[in-house]
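Milestone M4 deliverable, item 7.
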Amino acid sequence: MKLDRITSNSNRMNGQPCIRNLRLTVRRVIELLATYSDREELRREFPELEDEDIRQALIFASSYLEDRIIELPDRYETVA
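Output delivered:
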């Protein structure tokens, strides 16, 4: 799969993977998706972020996760 919207430049954002050479990292996009439950609100706050940017950021991030089973304690708390 071609991820042509994910860029990395050692002189920008410390070489972190970014969206279309913007100062918006893949990590930040994932955080924004978790923070903004309303996609329209996210679009208002970040109008430069396009649906294809979000899709490719999710694909890029998921490619770094291994398929494995992780045992969670009975009482699992999330950190937000």
